[in-house]
Amino acid sequence: MMGSAEFSSCGLHRYRLDRWWSDEPRALVCMRNPSTAGGDRNDPTICRLRALLKGRPGIGGFTVVNADDRIATDPRDLEAWLAAQDVASLKALQQANLDRIRALATNAPVRLVAWGNLLTPGLHADRVIAALSHDGIKPLHAFALTGDGAPIHPLARGRTRVPLGMPLVVWRAGRITTSAEGEI
Fold this sequence. Notes:
The strands form two sheets. The chain has a five-stranded mixed sheet with strand order 1-2-4-3-5, with helices on both faces. It is built from four helices and eight strands, in the order βββαβααβαβββ. The protein has helices at about 45-55, 75-85, 85-105, 125-135, and strands at about 1-5, 15-20, 25-30, 60-65, 110-115, 140, 170, 175. It has one domain (about 1-180). It comes from Methylobacterium tarhaniae. This is DUF1643 domain-containing protein.
């Protein structure tokens, strides 16, 4: 498996992380907050994504983006950092991230949402969803859903753990489509 990652010059933001095993297009996976995984260093989430996506027809790898690109291995650290930012700077950072997500979503064969319960519904979440789906034109998928309809994170444990080979489902802000044409 080959890999790359793009970080800010200060190293505190990860804009994207790529893993690929063939020349086929890469799935786009959006989660909440980036980890410290890099171009040649995996973490448990990246290893699980590989296991969940490798072998799916038409997918030769994946690109990971995040609703917020600030590296924070603990979501509480991200929330504290977000709360400490001035509004204008935060808006500029988030808009640049949304522009990146929208550009990457353009040619992705599948766009996966996988943030668990960590992305709070509201204006920022709506903007992330709009960027990923090109304003509702392109479908979004999930591995599965939490009990309250959030898209399951790849490292979900226990009863919510996603079995390998399970079909992806179309996700619409907390609902899934179970029709055969919605499955991948």
